[in-house]
Specification:
InterPro entries: GMPPB_C (IPR056729), Mannose-1P_guanyltransferase (IPR050486), NTP_transferase_dom (IPR005835), Nucleotide-diphossugar_trans (IPR029044)
CATH topology of the largest domain: Spore Coat Polysaccharide Biosynthesis Protein SpsA, Chain A
Number of helices: 10
Number of domains: 2
Distance between the termini: 50 Å
Helix content: 10-25%
Shape: globular
Number of strands: 32
Largest sheet: 7 strands, mixed
Strand content: 25-35%
Bound molecules: guanosine-5'-diphosphate-alpha-D-mannose, guanosine-5'-triphosphate
Protein name: Mannose-1-phosphate guanyltransferase alpha-A
Family: Belongs to the transferase hexapeptide repeat family.
Strand order of the largest sheet: 5-4-1-6-11-8-12
CATH class of the largest domain: Alpha Beta
Pfam families: GMPPB_C, NTP_transferase
Radius of gyration: 22 Å
Length: 425
């Protein structure tokens, strides 16, 4: 038996994702019509021996999470459960804390996936590789290539090219180490608990001896981090291997990254769910490229959508509207002849007619092989907002005949005019 574990973090995480994470835990933010971690769970469901998925995080249980769990349980016939850490325990602390639940039923191995990544997860290929390289007590991490410059923002892996053993691992190094980066997706054998136990023990001991620092941050003795405490020690012991993929993979740290993730998940639907992609036809809106429209949405036949557009539940799109490279979230209304470009329209917002909501993408450089999405700072060195996609928070009213350009609008705003390069608080 194999299990799947998703590290969903908690309310203090996903801050760069505001204002969208103000309403909904970031892992539930919809991309290509489905919550971010729905795509992880769907990938898990394709692994033949995988019947159970554990979500580990420090969100208070909430209605949205419970509803999501019920839905994926029904759809994929998997047992899906949420385990709440009593405080943020780090990327490995929760795995150790809930070890009894993880090891219940004696799984052969378990996947661990960061929630804030998206990709065409090659889980079956990882499992095959894992079984081939080890004797049941080894661990496999998913790696992919990045540019030398960008690799510094990730965990970097140096492998033995012949055996794919990880010989060296450095988390977010200060200078170039390797362009193979850690994708935040692992396949561990139960043996990993031994290393987690040792790290836990070490932290407890340090806590007792190092009293001043620890009394200032009492939480740290329970925290364990895979990246800094486990992988570095496991490297070059013959127990840690890397499976490298060329499939689509990206981090989802900022709201802008969801537009990029949306585009790629829609492209994957051609292979996995062609039925989810909107088609042209009589009495239907014009569709250009890949578009997902929720069945309950109402889109006027004179509207033009695409490429790379997702239209959520109960959305209403009026006459002559043009939407491109954008997400229109549940319950929103776009009135007649408005243009939406590189933007996210938050839940239950209304955009008036003849308006223009536009953002600026920061896609990876197409001329650089292996380039990943840059996570740029909100402000530049002069204190000005960097051009980015436009994000409209939930329940925002945008009047007719205005232009909203490269702006972030917080929830429940009633805008009275045009805005350019602003955060509207
Ligand atoms: N349950 C739980 N508890 N989850 C957590 C906690 C915690 O205390 N802290 C972080 N996570 C989850 C986050 O929700 C996220 O899904 C994942 O763990 C990693 O989060 P970060 O700590 O923000 O790390 P990162 O994204 O900067 O870097 C990690 O991912 C990169 C790939 O995206 C590292 O593993 C890098 O090495 C890796 O390249
Ligand atoms: P490409 O030819 O695809 O490069 O696009 P474009 O240069 O014609 O224009 P743009 O990418 O800005 O917009 C895409 C589509 O939206 C075009 O067909 C425009 O006619 C249309 N469009 C642009 N601005 C508006 C607007 O303010 N309102 C409406 N309803 N449509 C618009």
């Amino acid at each position: 038996m194999i299990k799947g574990i998703i590290l969903i973090g908690g309310p203090m995480k996903g801050t760069r994702f505001r204002p969208l994470s103000l309403e909904l835990p970031k892992p539930l933010f919809p991309v290509a019509g489905f919550p971010m971690i729905y795509h992880h769970i769907e990938a898990c469901s394709k692994v033949p021996d995988l019947k159970e998925v554990l979500l580990i995080g420090f969100y208070q249980p909430n209605a949205a999470l419970n509803h999501f769990i019920m839905e994926v349980h029904q759809e994929f016939k998997l047992q899906v459960r949420y385990f709440q850490e009593y405080q943020a325990l780090g990327t490995a602390g929760g795995l150790y804390h809930f070890r009894d639940q993880i090891l219940a039923g004696n799984p052969e191995a378990f996947f661990v996936m960061n929630a804030d990544v998206c990709g065409d997860f090659p889980l079956n290929e990882m499992l095959e590789f894992h079984r081939k390289t080890g004797n049941g007590d080894t661990h496999t991490m998913l790696g992919t290539e990045a540019t030398q410059q960008q690799s510094l923002n990730y965990g970097c892996i140096v492998e033995n090219k012949d055996t794919h053993e990880v010989v060296h691992y450095v988390e977010k190094p200060g200078s170039y180490v390797s362009s193979i980066i850690n994708c935040g997706t692992y396949l561990f054998s139960p043996d990993i608990m031994k290393y987690l136990a040792a790290a836990f023990q070490k932290n407890q001991e340090n806590f007792c001896t190092d009293s001043i620092e620890s009394s200032l941050s009492p939480s740290t003795k329970e925290c364990i981090f895979l990246e800094s405490e486990i992988f570095m020690d496991l490297a070059s012991t013959g127990k840690l291997f890397v499976y490298q993929t060329t499939n689509f993979w990206s981090q989802v740290k900022s709201a802008g990254a969801t537009i990029y993730a949306n585009r790629h998940y829609l492209a994957i639907y051609h292979r996995t769910h062609p039925d989810r992609l909107a088609k042209n036809g009589e009495g239907k809106p014009t569709i250009i490229g890949d578009v997902y429209i929720h069945p309950s949405a109402s889109v006027h036949e004179s509207a033009t959508l695409g490429p790379n557009v997702t239209v959520g539940k109960n959305v209403v799109i009026g006459e002559g509207v043009r939407v491109r490279e954008s997400l229109v979230l549940e319950g929103s209304t776009i009135l007649d002849h408005t243009l939406i470009l590189y933007s996210i329209i938050g839940w239950n917002s209304v955009v008036g007619s003849w308006s223009r909501v536009e953002g600026t993408p920061n896609d990876p450089n197409p001329n650089k092989p292996f380039a990943k999405l840059e996570v740029s700072d909100l402000f530049n060195s002069e204190g000005k907002l960097n051009p980015s996609i436009t994000v409209i928070g939930s329940n925002v009213q945008i009047p007719s005949e205005v232009v909203i350009l490269n702006s972030l609008v917080l929830p429940h705003k009633d805008l009275g005019r045009s805005y350019k390069n602003q955060i509207i608080l």
